[in-house]
Amino acid sequence: MRSPASPHPVAVIGGGLAGCAACLGLVRRGVNVVWIAPGGTIVDKPGESLAPAGLAVLTDMGLDDLLTDPVHRKSMVSFTAWGSDALLERHAAGQLGGMGHILNRSHFEMALFQKVRKADGLRWHDASLAAFSRSATGWTLATDGGEVIEASLVIDATGRRAMIGRTQTTLRRLDRLVSAYAFLEQADLDVDPTPATVIEAVGDGWWYATLLPNRTLALNFYTDPDLMPRRIGSRLDDWRQMVAKTHYIARWIESAGYAIRQPPRLASAGTVWLETAAGPDWLAIGDAAVSFDPLSAHGMTTALWTGNEAAAAVARAWDGDDAALDGYASRLRLGVAQYDRERRAIYAREVRFSDYPFWMRRNDFTQHEPL
To answer: Over pLDDT 90: what percentage of the chain?
Structure first.
C-alpha cells in the first residue's frame, strides 16, 4: 500500500453506525486510523428497521453475527393503510430477500461500538470534535478534551450536523419533515402483542408503529414543523388525542394493552444531503452525507454502506487510484437521485388527502432548497 502525501493518519469523526463501519473498514484494509468519538451510553432513538440490503452490507463486513442476538428479530409482517382506508398486509414469505430486521437499536450500536474499540490498528479518542482547520498538508483537529490531532484525511460521521462537510460544499434540503416519537410499555402483560409493523397515513402526515423484540412498542408520527401541534413535547393529553384520532394505530395500542404515559420527543427527519460527499482530502458518510425520509427504511443501511464504501475508497486512493474519492461521491449522487424518484412515487400513491398541505408539498415539489 502506498502512503499518502501526509504521514498522518485518517481521522474518523463520529461514533454512530457510519463512523463505526468506516473505522472497521479502514483497519481491515490496513489504513492507519484515529477515531474521535465520545463514549458513554447510547440512548433509545427512532430508526430500528434494517432493510434487507443491510444484511448484505453486514455480511460483507463480517458483522452479520450481530443479528443473531435474540434482542433483535426478523421482520415478518407489516400492515399499511396508505392510499386506501383498507389495511393491507405484507408478509416476508412473499418478499424476495425477506423484509429485513427490527433491531434493538441502542444494543446494536453498542455492540458495533465495542467491536471498533477492540480493533487493532486504531487509536480511539474518547472526545468530541471542538474545532478544526485545513491546510495544504492535511487537517488539524482539536477535541473538547484539549487534544490536538493531525490527519491527512478526515471522514465526517457527525450525523446531521455534518461538521466538516457543510464547510466544504452546499447542503441541500428536500423537505422539513420532523418526528414525534415515543416508546410505549405494556400496561396489560397478559396480552401477547403481534410482532408486526403498522404504517398509517393521515391528513397531516403519517404514523409508524412497530413491536420491538423486548415487547416495547415504538411509535412515531411524521409531519412538517408548522403542522405539528405546538409544544407537543410537553403536552401528554394532546399527544394522546393525536393517537386516538388514528384508526389502526390507536386500535393496536389499545388491543395490545399499551399505555401512553409520557409526551413524545422530537427529532428532525427531513431529507438533506451534501451536494458532493467527498473532496480531495475528506469524505462524508451516514447522515452527514445524506439523510433519507424514514419512509424509505434505509437509514441504518445507508449508514453502514457509506461507512464501508468510504473506507474502500480511501484504501484505493492510498493505492494510487486518483478517481476513488470522486467515484464514491458519484455513487452517492446516483443513490440520492434514485431515492428521490422512489419517494415521489410512494407519496403519490396517497390520494385521499391530496388537498392537505402535507401531501401537496410532497406531490408538488419543484426544486431542492439549499440550506
So the answer is: 81
Angle formed at CA 235 by CA 231 and CA 240, multiple of 5 degrees:
125
Return the CA Rg of the chain.
Answer: 21
In sequence order, what are the beta bridge partners of 173? 272, 369
Which residue in this structure is represented by grid cell 492507519?
32
CB contact at 8 A, 100 and 55:
yes
Beta-carbon count within 10 A of 335 CB: 19
Concatenated DSSP letters for 11-55?
EEE--SHHHHHHHHHHHHTT--EEEE---SPPPP-S--EE-HHHH
Choose among 266, 288, 264: nearest CA to 277: 288
pLDDT confidence of residue 206: 98
Residues 185/43, Cβ–Cβ less than 8 Å: no
Cβ neighbours of residue 215 under 8 Å, at least 6 residues apart? 186, 193
Extract the C-alpha cell encoding 241: 388525542
Could you give all domains of the chain from N- to C-terminal order, each with its CATH number? 10-71+103-174+270-343 (3.50.50.60), 178-268 (3.30.9.100)
pLDDT digits (tens, 9 = 90+) for 347-367: 999 999 999 999 999 987 554
